[in-house]
């Protein structure tokens, strides 16, 4: 259909503009009030650091409005869990009822994301649902924190809660709740989070009923419909201004643990036609033998979030979802069926979908282009806290900040929350140390972690720790991109590998990789892990030499990588005084040398690269950025298939843009 034949729904508002705006923003405030209640009353330190979201849904379960700090993956699925309650309970929903659900196969994300769903009635008529979703630090399963990379099926990942009633007509069903939380570690904390979420949902209910008292039920219900229609209308208007066509991108999960070598492709095809966006993920790899798979709901949410990133001015509700359609092949890593494990979807399929969307939309809307961002990771330590006589069980549950991709006219953001949830806070070390026998030993920006480019990727962070008085400690890690390394676009180069290290800077130092579970720890054991920076955007040899100098002064780039990645030769005069000098003649020669050789470097036999690396002739960043080779850093052996796939991406995203 040609652009002249496109149609956009006409505005059929029955509300005056002032009332519409007041109620639209009133709904946002309502959700934010729920969030504030959760923030002030939750028990989990995880939730306190904003790993939670809230939403207002209409009587059909459609999202009417989100708040201002909600996490993208949650918001894109909350309407699905409301619909699951409607599907299971149909007409058996009454005033005073409250439901609980964490089922990732019914529209949820993973078992830790536990949703409270409160139906709202007005004069005995169901008019809305309030939802509060919090990441509970543990919901049972074989490992503390409920992340078990060894689980092929969900039975080791915690208790699965399909839609279940926990209040019946106002009566608290303690037997049901006790059955659930008794299967979770630190059950008193879980009960506290549950109560916090219920009370937060009641705050939303109260706020909505006050709006009804002020504006009338008919006006508020009309506003429910019209705010969704409004978002659909302006989204279609945005799409109308874009060219029709089809675009494709691919991103990868590091591996299937049962297979070993070989990146796991997630193929995203996007078509714009007739004011709609159609995603087709056909050709994506079948589900794999660990928890990095995504269920349908979370994968769909990844498409919503990846798209919404390029339309920041558009509010998000179900009106947006009407415009974005998707086909997610069954039995794939983006639509894993029950009981396939999916708890690590956030580090696996979800952010790969988002970054593939970023690449597609960067081509369509280059003024908003952004390269790949670092991968979300979780490090979990559980055990008994023996710092006092109580000997309580503890959960140290941490995530990292990292670098976002370089943008079309500026560098990527340093040390920022993951694209999975930019509302997440960096957990304060002081709070963690008070609650758990784990001391933070370092938390600092990593030099050379930002992907080189005309616009550099943001820098990542390294965080280390040591255990104090702990008994029965175990550590698990949920991450990715030790092989599918955070990539650049439009000529930009990649960042650094992610992965955790045990006993750093000792003779026992051991790289554990990005996914492991139940590694024993005792008092005095230490660990560290880096987060990657973002990928670079544009040819690094086109970066302004003075910008490279400023990066060296700021500690973002080393003198060595300034020469190797940017071709800028810098001499240190006095570091304490930040005195450095550019050798312009040597810089000209170095850039000519790199231009002449960089395409050749990407064709060097990978085994020759491995040999040079083992001999100390080149370092890890040379291996990745110059030669495009992937090595298993637990064995220091080259990975041939992964290297072939990785080089293909560098040729497409980087080399194709070089002179």
What is the secondary structure topology, with strand pairs?
Blueprint: H1 17-41, H2 45-48, E1 52-58, E2 63-66, H3 72-89, E3 98-101, E4 113-122, E5 125-135, E6 164-168, E7 171-172, H4 174-181, H5 187-215, H6 217-240, E8 245-253, E9 264-273, E10 276-280, H7 296-308, H8 318-321, E11 324-327, H9 346-364, E12 378-385, E13 393-399, H10 429-435, E14 438-445, E15 461-467, E16 470-478, E17 500-502, E18 510-513, E19 515-521, E20 526-530, H11 545-554, H12 559-566, E21 570-574, E22 579-582, H13 584-601, H14 606-614, H15 620-626, E23 631-632, E24 637-638, H16 640-653
Parallel strand pairs: 10-11
Antiparallel strand pairs: 1-2, 1-5, 3-4, 3-6, 4-5, 6-7, 8-9, 9-10, 12-13, 12-16, 14-15, 15-20, 16-19, 17-18, 17-20, 21-22, 23-24
Helix pairs in contact: 1-5, 3-7, 5-6, 7-9
Describe the overall structure.
With 659 residues, this protein is an alpha+beta fold. It contains 16 helices and 24 strands. It has helices at 17-41, 45-48, 72-89, 174-181, 187-215, 217-240, 296-308, 318-321, 346-364, 429-435, 545-554, 559-566, 584-601, 606-614, 620-626, 640-653, and strands spanning 52-58, 63-66, 98-101, 113-122, 125-135, 164-168, 171-172, 245-253, 264-273, 276-280, 324-327, 378-385, 393-399, 438-445, 461-467, 470-478, 500-502, 510-513, 515-521, 526-530, 570-574, 579-582, 631-632, 637-638. It has a seven-stranded antiparallel beta sheet, with helices on both faces. A hairpin with a 2-residue loop joins strand 4 and strand 5 (125-135). Helix 5 (187-215) crosses helix 6 and helix 7 (296-308) packs parallel to helix 9. The two termini are 38 Å apart.
């Amino acid at each position: 259909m040609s652009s002249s034949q496109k149609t956009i729904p006409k505005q059929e508002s029955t509300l005056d503009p002032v009332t519409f705006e007041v109620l639209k923003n009133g709904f946002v405030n309502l959700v934010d009030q729920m969030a504030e209640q959760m923030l002030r009353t939750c028990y989990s330190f995880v939730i306190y650091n904003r790993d939670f979201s809230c939403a207002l849904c209409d009587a059909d379960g459609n999202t009417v409005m989100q708040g201002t700090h909600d996490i993208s993956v949650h918001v894109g699925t909350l309407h699905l869990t409301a619909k699951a309650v409607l599907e299971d309970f149909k007409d058996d929903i009454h005033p005073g009822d409250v439901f609980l659900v964490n089922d990732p196969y019914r529209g949820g994300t993973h078992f830790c994301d536990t949703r409270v769903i409160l139906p709202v009635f007005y004069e005995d008529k169901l008019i809305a649902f309030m939802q509060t979703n919090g990441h509970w630090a543990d919901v049972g399963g074989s490992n503390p924190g409920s992340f078990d990379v060894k689980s092929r099926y969900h039975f080791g990942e915690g208790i699965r809660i399909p839609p279940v009633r926990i209040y019946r007509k106002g009566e608290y069903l303690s037997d049901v709740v006790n059955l659930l939380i008794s299967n979770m570690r630190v059950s008193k904390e879980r009960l506290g989070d549950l109560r916090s979420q219920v009370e937060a949902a009641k705050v939303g209910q109260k706020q909505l009923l006050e709006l009804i008292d002020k504006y009338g039920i008919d006006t508020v219900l009309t506003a429910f419909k019209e705010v969704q229609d409004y978002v659909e209308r302006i989204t279609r208007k945005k799409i109308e201004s874009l060219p029709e066509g089809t675009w494709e991108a691919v991103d990868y999960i590091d591996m299937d643990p049962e297979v070993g070598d070989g990146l796991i492709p997630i193929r995203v095809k996007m078509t714009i036609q007739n004011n709609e966006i159609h995603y087709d993920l056909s050709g994506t790899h079948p589900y794999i033998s660990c928890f990095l798979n995504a269920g349908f709901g979370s994968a769909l949410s990844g498409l919503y979030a990846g798209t919404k990133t390029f339309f920041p001015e558009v509010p998000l509700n179900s009106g947006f979802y009407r415009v974005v359609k998707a086909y997610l092949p069954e039995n794939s890593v983006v639509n894993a069926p029950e009981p396939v494990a999916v708890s690590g979807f956030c580090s696996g399929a979800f952010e790969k979908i988002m970054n593939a969307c970023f690449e597609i939309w960067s081509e369509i809307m280059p003024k908003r282009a952004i390269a790949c961002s670092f991968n979300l990771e979780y490090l979990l330590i559980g055990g008994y806290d023996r710092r006092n006589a109580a000997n309580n069980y503890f959960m140290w549950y941490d995530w990292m900040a990292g670098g976002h991709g370089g943008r079309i006219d500026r560098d990527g953001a340093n040390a920022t929350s993951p694209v999975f949830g930019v509302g997440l806070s960096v957990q304060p070390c002081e709070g963690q140390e008070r609650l758990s026998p784990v001391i933070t030993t370092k938390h600092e920006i990593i030099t050379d972690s930002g992907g080189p480019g005309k616009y550099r990727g943001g820098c990542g962070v390294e965080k280390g720790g040591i255990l104090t008085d702990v008994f029965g400690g175990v550590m698990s890690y949920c991450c990715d991109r030790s092989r599918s390394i955070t990539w650049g676009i439009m000529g930009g180069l990649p960042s650094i590998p992610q992965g955790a290290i045990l006993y750093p800077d000792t003779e026992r130092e051991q790289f554990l990789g990005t996914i492991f579970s139940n590694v024993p720890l005792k008092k005095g054991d230490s660990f560290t892990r880096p987060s990657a920076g973002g990928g670079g955007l544009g040819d690094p040899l086109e970066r302004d030499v003075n910008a490279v100098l400023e990066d060296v002064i700021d500690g973002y780039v080393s003198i060595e990588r300034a020469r190797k990645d940017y071709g800028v030769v810098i001499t240190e005069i006095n570091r304490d005084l930040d005195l450095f000098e550019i050798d312009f003649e040597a810089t000209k020669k170095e850039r000519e040398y790199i231009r002449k050789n960089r395409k050749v470097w990407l064709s060097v036999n990978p085994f020759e690269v491995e040999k040079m690396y083992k001999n100390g002739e080149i370092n890890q960043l040379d291996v990745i950025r110059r030669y495009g080779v992937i090595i298993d850093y637990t064995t220091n052996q080259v990975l041939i298939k992964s290297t072939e796939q990785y080089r293909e991406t560098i040729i497409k995203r980087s080399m194709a843009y070089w002179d």
